[in-house]
Specification:
Elements: H1 11-20, H2 24-38, E1 46-49, E2 52-55, H3 69-83, E3 88-91, E4 104-106, E5 115-116, E6 129-135, H4 152-164, E7 166-177, H5 182-189, E8 197-205, E9 208-212, H6 214-217, E10 231-238
Parallel strand pairs: 3-4, 3-6, 4-5, 6-7
Antiparallel strand pairs: 1-2, 7-10, 8-9, 8-10
């Protein structure tokens, strides 16, 4: 397995500072400490997405209560529900941390029972899927792993690889944060991802997200004014 940006002793700390800023070295532990005290008191709220009012998801794991996962998890579950009993592949191990299991999971680096450790651009399988779902993973492709000369080509290669694994009528769906990977931002700004449908969510408060037009979301910074993602792009590709 190829090395990645945060492999090796001390490298994960350097990666964390590079991606999230030195202040988060101190703020993230505080959020983790406060998490179990805060989450029981967060009131249930909903946000509209694709003709449904989805409930914000709050969890202690990965301080989900104060980052973009609070909307990504319900969006991911909505895609799963629409796939019904179809064959599903998740690229990047995310939903399993929140109890959503029963589908195939491919993750290049994370090791756990049942996870396929492979690069999506190189994985060879005869199986085909009704839904391929990815939550905040594509922004790391070629950016936090082994690509050296920019990540845009590898991201597009990953999308092509996923679409090739779909059954006829299948769907590739993914969420990515804006402002994290400059190469990915440029692809989105140029409308070069090749999606059939796309949505932008903008963060207007600590736990207040809304679907907005692309012009309102483009250029949103990562980590400002709120920690972690402040805008998301959600895309669907048809087979």
């Amino acid at each position: 397995m190829a090395d990645h940006l945060y492999s090796g002793p001390g490298a994960k700390v350097r990666w964390f500072v590079k991606r999230f800023g030195a202040c988060e070295l101190f703020l993230l532990p505080l959020r983790i400490l406060c998490s179990r005290l805060v989450t029981p008191f967060l009131r249930a709220r909903r946000f509209p997405f694709r003709d449904e009012n989805l409930e914000y998801f709050y969890a202690h794991y990965n301080v989900t209560w104060c980052n973009e996962r609070c909307v990504e998890i319900p969006i991911g579950r909505q895609f799963l529900a629409r796939a019904k009993d179809g064959d599903v592949l998740e690229v990047g191990h995310v939903l399993g941390h929140y109890g959503d299991r029963g589908h195939a999971v491919l993750d290049k680096f994370e090791t756990a029972e049942g996870i396929i450790n492979a690069d999506i651009t190189e994985w060879d399988t005869e199986q085909r899927f009704d839904l391929i779902l990815s939550i905040s993973t594509f922004e790391h492709i070629g950016f936090d792993d082994d690509a050296e000369d920019g990540s845009d080509e590898k991201i597009l290669a990953a999308i092509a690889a996923c679409r090739a694994l779909l059954k006829p009528g299948g769907v590739l769906a993914y969420t990515v944060p804006l402002g994290y990977n400059p190469d990915l931002d440029r692809l989105i700004e140029a409308d070069a991802m090749g999606q059939d449908r796309g949505w932008f969510l903008l963060r207007r408060g600590p736990r207040d997200w809304a679907v907005v037009k692309r012009a309102e979301a483009l250029g949103t910074e990562y980590g400002r004014p709120f920690p972690f993602a402040n805008a998301l792009f959600i895309a669907e590709h048809d087979k």
